[in-house]
Amino acid sequence: MRPIALVLAVTLGLTLVPLSPEAQQPAKVWRIGFLGAETASTNRHFLDAFRLGMRERGYVEGQSITIEERWAEGRSERFHDLVAELVQLKMDVIVPISTPAAREAKNFTKTTRLPSVTWKPHGPVAQFAGKWLELLVDTIPQLSRVAILWNPSNPSNASFLKAVQSSSQSFRTTLLLHGVADASQFDSGFRAMADACAQALIVFVDPITVRHRARIVELATKSRLPAIYGFREFADAGGLMAYGPNVAGACRRAAVYVDKVLKGAKPGDLPVEQVTQFEFLINLKTVKALGLTIPQSVLVRADEIIQ
Questions:
Q1: What gap in Å lies between CA 72 and CA 291, rounded to an integer?
Q2: Which of 34, 48, 88, 258 is the most exposed place for a label (fewest CB within 10 A)?
Q3: Are 195 and 225 within 8 A, CB to CB?
């Protein structure tokens, strides 16, 4: 499970979309649009990672590039207007960092007959979503009832659910589905988990859960539910365990592709990279707060133990 300096993560919708013919021509100052699914206050480190990647390739903001950032604030319906705004501002490249954002960018460039990078709104989901339940089972003896906190309206979550359901059959566990459409439903969701005698929790990666990760972690700890999440940001916020791709690393890696596009490469000719390795984190403080004993066989698999 060793982490790598990640890749262009099409499973996360990290896609480059050239927005004008000028993207193929030399220019003194390139204009890059960065489109995030959440708010700058919660996910600015993704943009910071992308900026670092551009600096590593010799670009200097204000001299050779400018970056226009836009944030959907957890509302996928905003992506259309945000992409339209970036097009109006004559961006040379747009970098969406979520699947819905990338889908909207691609659809928009189709309607305007502008070139786009071909991408697939799926990836090796089973490689990491199926691992969530496996890690919980290895951590908690005789685990049989596992709650799922998810947003059913997000199409991407169907792939997560299918992978976890397949894993649950192998481990003979019962899944307790608790759908949430907004943060106001978290409290009732956790009460329902308690009523259903859930023994552990899997939180699906979603704009709602990522944006409100601190609240979810707080409720999981208060409910004494051992939980596993899909991004390291949850473990950094106090979540017990996280297993999945490093999004910030993928944003940093995206700069490699932006660099190639700005230097004249055709997006369709660039190889599509996918996440093939993932990182596993354990938050030791939360382990102690929950009164758990993590088996040594699980501890040695962790890429990072947060003290």
A1: 38
A2: 88
A3: no
Give the CATH architecture of domain 125-244+278-306: 3-Layer(aba) Sandwich (3.40)
The single-letter DSSP state of residue 273 is P
Measured in whole angstroms, how far is the alpha carbon of residue 70 from the centre of its chain?
17
Q: Encode pLDDT of 13-68 as tens digits.
A: 455 566 655 555 555 799 999 998 888 888 999 999 999 999 999 999 999 999 99
> DSSP strand E in 113-160: where?
145-150
CATH code: domain 10-121+246-269 is 3.40.50.2300
Tell me the C-alpha distance between 100 and 113, whole Å.
Answer: 20
Looking at the chain, the domain(s) classified CATH 3.40.50.2300 span 10-121+246-269, 125-244+278-306
Return d(Cα 186, Cα 29) in angstroms, integer: 45
Specify the pLDDT at position 23.
53
Give the amino acid at 238: G
With H, G, I as helix, E, B as strand and everything else as coil, classify residue 70: strand
The region that residue 44 occupies, defined by phi over 0 for left and psi between -120 and 50 for alpha, beta otherwise, is alpha
Q: Distance between the two ends of the chain, CA-based, in angstroms?
A: 19
**How far, in Å, are 44, 139, 302 from residue 296 at the CA level?**
35, 9, 10
pLDDT the model gives residue 246: 86
CB environment 133-158: b (16+ within 10 A), e (fewer): bebbbebbeebeebbbbbbeebebbe
Please give the pLDDT value at position 117: 37
Which tokens in the block code for residue 65?
Answer: 């590039």
